[in-house]
Amino acid sequence: METAYWIIAVLLAAFYAYAGSLKIVRSQEQLQPMMGWAGTDVSMGVVRFIGTVEVLGALGLVLPPLTGVAPGLAMAAAIGLTVLQVLAMRVHLGRGEKRESVMNVVLVGLGAVAAWLATSL
């Protein structure tokens, strides 16, 4: 079970660290081709906040179990990122972006599995 957690956690952490970093450092013009909602439906301040939450969530998936300090935070990070994706799915479906919603469903599933597997850490 621990090996399964680490596989999923590292994949999710890499995804969220990358996606979150883009939201933090790129301008609205740079994000628009990839994320049409960024800066139009959602202000850039909120986009930067979401990016920060994603990067912190990525760290929360990996650092607590790795260091042994407050490993329960890994489950909290997985749950938080799962909730974030449910909210993102709402935005994408509201914009008629069904393709992006498929990615949200996958991330919700992986986040839920990571949260469940984190109970055994």
List the helices and strands and how they pair.
Elements: H1 2-25, H2 28-31, H3 44-67, H4 72-94, H5 98-118
Polypeptide structure, described:
The protein is mainly alpha-helical and 121 residues long. The protein has one domain. Helix content is 79%, strand content 0%. The protein is built from 5 helices and no strands. Helix 1 packs across helix 5, helix 3 packs antiparallel against helix 4 and helix 4 packs antiparallel against helix 5. The longest helix is centred in the first third of the chain and has 24 residues. The protein starts with a helix and ends with a helix. The mean pLDDT is 95.
Classify the secondary structure makeup into a structural class: mainly alpha
For the secondary structure, the number of strands is: 0
Intertermini distance: 9 Å
Low-confidence stretches: none
Helix/strand order: HHHHH
Helical content class = over 70%
The mean pLDDT is: 95
Give a short account of the largest sheet.
Answer: none
Shape: globular
Estimate nothing, just give the exact number of structural domains. 1
The value of Rg in angstroms is 15 Å
- Approximately how much beta-strand content do the residues carry? under 5%
Assembly of the depicted chains: single chain
Tally of helical segments: 5
